[in-house]
Structure formats: structure tokens, C-alpha cells
């Protein structure tokens, strides 16, 4: 029984990690907690659904297109909402509240356009194959989720660590002003970051939509809560931290449901977060943060 | 006239009550913000207050004021216990820790027997009168106004401006932070007790993440540079969904849009004395010219 739970935990955890990745990327580079990330995640899921339903695109193409669509939405949000606040040097509370406004708006628009009820992918879209190893049952969707999540995370890690682009992004994370003086196109990279983060969020949305085969306008909010917990667990702005934090949360939740009680599933994320912050204010893997008064 | 009023009151008394309660909630978060603390635990404190007061009214014969006071005191007690360790955190980390606390409270309430579990508490007798809310709101405003001009208020202001400098001047930073946190919890708890006694029913999900964010939004929307701002913010954001009822299913979208526009174009909130003064000066100057 334990092996089966571990497989489920791995697939749940990698979705959490993928979602948190975009979230933490925006925080690391832009220094903003983008609370519209959950809504963008939800819209990514709908984009894939519509492309499969209306244009009969194959699933892999629909997923790619959905990533582009959610990336563009992220870009628009950045341009219309975050950029003016950056230009004004607004306190960190302002983008948080403005993106709450964005989330409320997008969720409500989705509800109006697509209806409040759960939507499903047309029959036959989702691969039904599965395999059985001993007494462990693994579905193709689970394998796909883990493979795609890890592939995307690895790409991001390599870009951040090994390329000129990654170096520029890390310079901006350190100090946007200094990066600007070094001739880095800071504003352009802010846009790129918003695009990439939203695209990752959209990918997570498609994967969640596939694994539960249920898409609703309200799927973003609970995911956002998990995302917040994950980036705190892993240390804010830390990419490897988001990866480990996401997997950790996935395992903690699945094991709680299996061995304690399903009633406490939702408390696990925030209970952990609360405890970790008391012991290590900078997260499990974060650097000891400087005290900013 | 009187008939019109009766009809209006019968339809909208809950809205009027909610304006008062939301104004108090906005003030409770204003208080912690004025000490430089971004705490999002106020929805949870409101919930603790609401459950405490409602359970006392339902299960014992104690009078309403006693229930209400208990609804203010228990959150204070909880605030002391969780405040001592958490208030060491700063900025976004404090916000996240307090959100975490709120979520834990919600799940505990959802799973306890005595709180009615997921069903919540139903059939709470209607005990809140309009003047209860008005009176408590006015007392809150009076206390906060006096506080601003006292040694405590100045200490809050100093901590908000620069924590290190405040400590060097001899301000006992942890103690004042705890004071702001606990007072905020009392106000939120009282608001919760009042709220529970006119809504008939309460449930754990009334005090969740969304509500914590709503409370913060009301304060920032109205403006947190003085006491008028949170009251205006609470009022406007309570009325807004009612006024937008004509837009039917898209009213929340408009609500969100207004929120974005205020943050973008009125950075200090709706009530910003300096901007209003500048505006008057300009119109006066215009008239003379």
C-alpha cells in the first residue's frame, strides 16, 4: 500500500513544484508576490480544454499552446498592473493587493464565460494506459505529469545556472539597479520572467486538469494556497527550494490522508509552513535572511 | 416616509450592520499596519471571537455583553500565545505565517465537535442591535484616536518608520508589536461576536484566506494613513457589490477592476488628506485666476 501512496505523492508533489516554480521565479526576479498566479494556472487549463474541444488539437500541441496563452496573460498582467507599480517604486503590499484584484477579475470572467460547473476533457483525449508493477498501479497520466514537470524544472535550472540569460536574471534578483548599470535590459527580462512564470503556471494547470479530469474557475485559489506554502517551505525565490518544497508537500499531504485523516489534508500545508517559519524564518533551504527593519 | 424606511431597513439592515463590522475589521488591521506589521491573522481572530460569543449565547444563559466581551478576550489570549514567537518575523514572512495560522484555525474549527464541525453553528439568536455596532465602533475609533497621540502611538510610528532606530531610541520593540497585535485581535474578535449575532449562522469557511485578504483590502483601499481611511474602505467595499448588483454575474470582475485601479492611481488609498488638501488648493487657485 505504501508504494502506491508514494507514487501518488510523487505525481501530486511534482505538480505542486511546477506551480510553485513560476511563483518563486517571479518573487526571486521581480520581488513581487503575484497572487494572480492561481488564476493564470486555471486559465491555462481552460485554454488546453478549448483547444482540444474546438480545434481538435492533439493533447501535446494543446498543452504547448496553453502555455503560450497563459504566458501572454502573464505578460499582459505584468504590463498593465505590475509595471506601473515598479515605475513608482510602490511598497510590496501594493502589487500583492493589485494582483488579488487581477485574480478576482479573471476568476469571475472565467465563471461568466465558461460556467461555474466542472468541465471535462472529451472522452478519448486523456491516455488511458496504465501499468502494474507488483502491487503498484501507475497511470500514463501520472508518468506524463512527473516527466513533464521534471523536464520543465530541469530546463529552468539549467537556464538559470548555466546561461548568460540566467546570469542576467540572477543579477537582477540581486539588485535591479546594479544590473541596469551593467547594461542588462532589466525591463525586458522582467517581461520575459512574467511570461515564463505564467507559462509554467499554465502547464501545471493543464496537468492538474488532466489528472483530475475536472476543470473549474475555482481551481486556482486552493492551488495558490499550496503554492504559497511551498515557496515558504523551500525559501522564497529559491528554485531548488520550490522543487523540494513541492515534493515535500505532496508527500506530506498524501501520507496524512493515508495514515492520519483526510480531514486534516488542508491543514498540512499551512501547519507545516507555520512550524517551519517559527523555527527557520527563511524556509527549510533559504539563506538566513538579513533583517530589514 | 416611515413606511419607506421600514421597507428599506427590513431589506438592507444586514448591509448596514456589515458596514459597521467591516469598518471595525479594517481598523483592526490598520492598527497592526500602523506598527509596521503586515499581519493577516485578523480573519482568524474574528472567527475565534464569533465562535466564542455564539457558543456562550447558545450554551449558557449569560447575557449578550458577557458573550461579546469573551469574544474579544479569547482572541487576545490566542494572540499573546502565537504573537510572542511569530512577531519576530518581518514583512512578507509575517504575512505568510499569520495566513498559515489562520488556515490552521479554520481546519481545527472544521474538525472539532463543539464548534459544529463543517455544519458550523446555526440558529444563533439575533441579539445585535444597530446601536451596539455604532457604539463599539465609536469607542474603537475614540480609543485608537487617543492612542495615536499617546506615547504608545508614537512608539508604533517609530517602529513603522525604522525598527532599528526605534530600538536604539529605547523603544521596547517586541512589547509594542505584541500590544498592537493583541489590540488588533480584540477589535477583530468583537467584530466577529457582533457579526455572529445578526447573521444567524456561522461556519469555519467564513474566516478563511479570502476573508483575511478582504480585510486587508478594505484597509488599503480606504487608506491607512489615518483612522478615516479604513472606515471609508470598509464602507465602500461593503456597498460596492450591492451597488454593482445590476451587473449580475460580472460584478466581481468589476470589483476586482476597481481594486486594481485604486492601487494604481490612488496609492495612498481613497482617503489621503494630503491629496485632498492639494485638490482644494488647486480648485481655489483656479477660481481666483
Polypeptide structure, described:
The complex is a heterodimer of chains A (293) and B (289). Chain A is mainly α and 293 residues long. Chain A has one domain. Chain A has helices at residues 2-30, 37-55, 59-88, 93-114, 140-162, 164-174, 176-181, 186-212, 220-234, 239-259, 265-279, and strands at 130-133, 136-139. Mean pLDDT of chain A is 87; it is low at 288-293. Chain B is built from twelve helices and no strands. The N and C termini of chain B lie far apart (45 Å). Chain B has helices at residues 2-34, 42-59, 64-86, 91-111, 130-148, 151-161, 163-168, 173-199, 209-222, 228-243, 251-265, 273-288. Chain B has a single domain, classed as ABC transporter involved in vitamin B12 uptake, BtuC. The model of chain B has no long low-confidence stretch (mean pLDDT 88). Chain B is mostly helical and 289 residues long. In chain B, α3 packs antiparallel against α8 and α5 runs antiparallel to α8. At the A-B interface, α3, α4, α9 and α11 of A face α4, α7, α9 and α11 of B.
Q: Which features would summarize this protein structure in a list?
A:
heterodimer, A: 293 residues, mainly alpha, 11 helices, globular, B: 289 residues, ABC transporter involved in vitamin B12 uptake, BtuC, 12 helices
Amino acid at each position: 500500500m505504501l508504494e502506491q501512496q508514494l507514487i501518488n505523492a510523487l505525481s501530486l508533489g511534482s505538480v505542486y513544484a511546477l506551480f510553485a516554480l513560476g511563483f518563486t521565479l517571479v518573487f526571486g526576479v521581480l520581488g513581487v508576490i503575484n497572487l494572480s498566479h492561481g488564476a493564470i494556472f486555471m486559465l491555462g487549463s481552460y485554454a488546453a480544454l478549448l483547444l482540444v474541444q474546438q480545434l481538435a488539437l492533439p493533447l501535446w500541441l494543446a498543452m504547448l499552446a496553453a502555455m503560450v496563452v497563459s504566458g501572454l496573460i502573464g505578460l499582459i498582467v505584468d504590463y498593465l498592473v505590475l509595471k506601473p507599480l515598479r515605475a513608482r517604486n510602490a511598497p510590496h503590499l501594493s502589487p500583492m493587493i493589485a494582483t488579488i484584484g487581477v485574480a478576482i477579475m479573471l476568476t469571475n470572467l472565467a465563471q461568466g464565460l465558461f460556467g461555474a460547473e466542472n468541465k471535462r476533457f472529451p472522452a478519448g483525449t486523456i491516455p488511458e494506459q496504465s501499468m502494474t508493477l507488483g502491487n503498484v498501479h501507475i497511470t500514463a497520466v501520472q508518468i506524463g505529469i512527473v516527466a513533464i514537470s521534471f523536464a520543465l524544472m530541469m530546463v529552468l535550472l539549467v537556464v538559470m545556472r548555466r546561461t548568460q540569460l540566467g546570469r542576467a536574471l540572477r543579477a537582477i534578483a540581486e539588485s535591479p539597479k546594479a544590473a541596469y548599470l551593467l547594461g542588462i535590459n532589466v525591463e525586458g527580462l522582467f517581461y520575459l520572467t512574467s511570461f515564463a512564470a505564467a507559462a509554467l503556471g499554465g502547464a501545471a494547470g493543464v496537468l492538474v486538469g488532466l489528472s483530475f479530469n475536472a476543470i473549474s474557475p475555482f481551481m486556482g485559489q486552493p492551488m495558490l494556497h499550496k503554492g504559497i506554502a511551498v515557496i515558504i517551505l523551500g525559501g522564497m525565490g529559491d528554485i531548488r527550494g520550490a522543487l523540494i518544497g513541492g515534493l515535500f508537500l505532496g508527500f506530506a499531504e498524501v501520507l496524512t490522508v493515508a495514515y492520519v485523516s483526510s480531514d486534516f489534508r488542508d491543514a498540512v500545508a499551512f501547519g507545516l509552513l507555520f512550524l517551519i517559519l517559527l523555527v527557520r524564518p527563511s524556509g527549510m533551504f533559504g539563506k538566513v535572511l538579513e533583517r530589514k527593519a | 416616509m416611515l413606511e419607506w424606511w421600514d421597507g428599506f431597513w427590513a431589506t438592507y439592515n444586514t448591509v448596514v450592520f456589515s458596514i459597521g463590522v467591516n469598518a471595525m475589521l479594517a481598523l483592526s488591521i490598520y492598527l497592526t499596519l500602523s506598527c509596521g506589521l503586515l499581519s493577516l491573522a485578523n480573519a482568524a481572530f474574528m472567527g475565534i471571537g464569533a465562535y466564542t460569543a455564539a457558543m456562550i449565547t447558545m450554551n449558557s444563559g449569560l447575557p449578550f455583553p458577557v458573550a461579546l466581551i469573551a469574544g474579544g478576550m479569547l482572541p487576545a489570549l490566542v494572540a499573546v500565545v502565537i504573537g510572542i514567537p511569530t512577531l519576530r518575523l518581518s514583512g512578507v514572512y509575517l504575512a505568510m505565517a499569520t495566513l498559515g495560522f489562520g488556515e490552521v484555525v479554520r481546519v481545527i474549527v472544521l474538525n472539532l465537535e463543539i464548534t459544529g464541525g463543517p455544519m458550523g453553528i446555526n440558529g444563533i439568536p439575533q441579539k445585535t442591535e444597530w446601536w451596539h455596532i455604532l457604539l463599539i465602533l465609536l469607542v474603537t475609533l475614540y480609543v485608537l484616536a487617543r492612542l495615536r497621540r499617546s506615547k504608545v502611538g508614537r512608539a508604533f510610528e517609530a517602529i513603522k518608520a525604522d525598527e532599528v532606530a526605534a530600538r536604539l531610541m529605547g523603544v521596547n520593540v517586541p512589547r509594542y508589536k505584541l500590544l498592537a497585535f493583541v489590540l488588533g485581535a480584540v477589535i477583530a474578535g468583537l467584530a466577529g461576536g457582533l457579526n455572529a449575532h445578526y447573521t444567524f449562522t456561522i461556519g469555519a469557511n467564513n474566516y478563511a484566506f479570502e476573508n483575511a485578504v478582504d480585510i486587508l483590502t478594505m484597509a488599503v483601499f480606504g487608506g491607512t494613513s489615518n483612522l478615516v481611511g479604513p472606515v471609508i474602505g470598509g464602507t465602500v467595499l461593503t456597498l460596492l457589490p450591492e451597488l454593482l448588483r445590476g451587473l449580475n454575474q460580472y460584478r466581481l470582475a468589476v470589483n476586482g477592476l476597481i481594486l486594481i485601479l485604486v492601487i494604481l492611481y490612488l496609492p495612498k488609498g481613497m482617503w489621503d488628506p494630503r491629496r485632498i488638501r492639494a485638490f482644494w488648493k488647486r480648485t481655489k487657485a483656479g477660481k481666483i485666476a
